[in-house]
From TrEMBL:
Organism this protein belongs to: Camellia sinensis (Tea plant)
Name of the protein: Uncharacterized protein
Keywords of this entry: ANK repeat, Repeat
InterPro entries in UniProt: Ankyrin_rpt (IPR002110), Ankyrin_rpt-contain_sf (IPR036770)
ANK repeats: 125-149, 190-222, 310-342
Length: 362
């Protein structure tokens, strides 16, 4: 029996794996690795782990630790022989790669990089270690990978989308700091931006940060769904409120099926959104011309003190138009007479500006 070296490059390669509770008596898992150099096997091991792993991730992590120690020793040994290894290849399943990231152990990631691991390697699906780091929310590992020169592929990588899914505004900020050319409005296979993803999940802090970085709150996907369509459909009250403050006209956008965000909220029974998406507008219109329509809005539960984009309430509008009956109806149903609009005017001052002095007697 002898070692056979092929006519291959003098490069160190590793094959590693583990099982889960393969020992039926002690329930211990097994770790195994095989290192080759220039095509010939130079180091191998297969043995039971010293402790009982409670998950496949833990079993893979233990195997990774054993492999990493052997890897570092072999690298230094080859360097003494004048065969310095700039990088090496680790052949493993997805669980092995994932466990390095999912454990959040940035020290081990650093050790692998120091040993020559290629941080820009991608699997057959185009997934990278950075993808795993972002998806698992391990900000320390993301920081390490950025510092050591991970190269983003804008045609594949959707790291902002991944961070939006897990509601990590801090991770999103780090990605912007680490990748100056990252596109805040990049889209996925469905035409959705990272803002769409945040809206679907109701992650307001991520929405707020992305908008501050130039994200388009009026963006539509391939089905003509806006961020507001998704937030309203899922019943995310705070997200809907934020998006309406970003764009007062997005509530009138219709998707491919001709539905507004309000229509979707009605379909899903999110009655707490009716006021923001529809009833408030209807009340403001009715306050100027139609007392009966205004009373209908009140019966449906409209917020009588809701403001428009200029800070006007329905009472401001009715007062400015001199609609005495409308003013009385609003006040009797809880409208506040001392609220200030965007210009610092109360409803009474708007009435005076409109030449309706008689309203001072109501």
């Amino acid at each position: 029996m002898c070692l056979c070296f092929r006519d291959a490059k003098p490069v160190l390669e590793d094959y590693t794996d583990s099982d889960m509770a393969g020992d039926l008596d002690g329930r211990k898992s097994a770790s195994g690795f095989l290192f080759t150099f220039a095509g010939g096997a130079v180091s191998w091991q297969s043995k039971l782990q010293k402790c009982v792993a409670l998950s496949t991730t833990e079993a893979e992590y233990i195997a990774a630790a054993e492999t990493g120690k052997e890897m570092l020793w072999l690298k230094r040994f080859l360097q003494e022989l004048g065969l310095k290894q700039e990088k090496f290849t680790v052949h493993c399943d997805n669980n092995f790669s994932g466990c390095l990231i999912l454990t959040g152990n940035s020290y081990f990631v650093l050790a692998l990089i120091d040993a020559g691991a290629d941080i820009n390697h991608r699997d057959s699906n185009g997934q990278s270690v950075m993808s795993l780091a972002v998806q698992s929310g391990n900000i320390d590992s993301v920081q390490v990978l950025i510092e050591y020169g991970f190269v983003i592929d804008h045609s594949i990588d959707r790291f902002l989308h991944d961070a939006a899914v897990i509601d990590r505004a801090d991770l999103t900020e780090l990605l912007f700091l680490g990748f100056a050319d990252i596109d805040v409005n990049s889209i996925d296979s469905q035409g959705r931006t990272a803002l769409h993803v945040a809206a679907i999940h109701g992650h307001v802090e991520v929405l707020r940060f992305l908008v501050s970085m130039g994200g388009d709150p009026d963006a539509v996907d391939y089905n003509r769904w806006t961020l507001l369509h998704y937030a309203a459909s899922e019943g995310h009250h705070e997200a809907v409120e934020f998006l309406l403050n970003c764009s007062m006209f997005v509530k009138y956008s219709v998707n491919e099926d001709g539905k507004t965000a309000f229509a979707l909220a009605v379909e899903k029974g999110h009655s707490d959104l009716y006021n923001m998406l529809h009833l408030g507008d209807a009340l403001h219109r009715a306050a100027r011309i139609d007392v009966h329509a205004m009373k209908s809005c009140i019966v449906e539960g409209v917020n009588v003190n809701g403001k428009d984009q200029n800070g006007w309430t329905a009472l401001h509008r009715a007062a400015f138009k001199g609609r005495i009956e409308s003013d009385k109806t609003l006040v009797s149903n809880g409208a506040q007479i001392d609220l200030l609009d965007g210009g610092g005017y109360t409803p009474l001052r708007r009435a005076v500006k409109g030449g309706h002095m008689q309203l001072q007697c109501i």
